[in-house]
Amino acid sequence: MRAKSVVYTRQRKKKIFRLAKGSYATKKNHWRMVIQQVERSLNYAYTGRKDNKANFRTLWIVRLNAAVREEGISYNRFIFGLKKANVAIDRKMLAEIAVNDNTAFKQLVEVVKAA
User: What CATH architecture is 8-114?
Assistant: First the structure.
C-alpha cells in the first residue's frame, strides 16, 4: 500500500495559513497567494525590526538635542564633551535622564562645559 503524506502536508499548510490570517482577499485562503503573501510579510517584518533601531536612535538624538539646547550648548559639543570627560553613557540613557531627571542632566551639562 502507498504511504500518503496528507497529515504532514496539512500541518505544514495550516502553519502558513495561520501566518496569513488577516490578509486581504485571496491572500488568506488560496495556497499560492498565501505563500507569496507570507514570504513578503516576513521580509517586511525582518527589515522593520532593523529600521526600528535606527528610528529609536533618531528619537533619542532629537530629545537630547532639544534638552541640551535649553542649557545653551549644541548636541555635537555635548557628545564631544562627554567623550572628552570620559563619561560612558549611551544615547538611550542620556535621553531618559534628559526627560525624567532634569537636575542630573544639568549636572552632566556642567561636567561637559568644564571639559
Answer: Orthogonal Bundle (1.10)
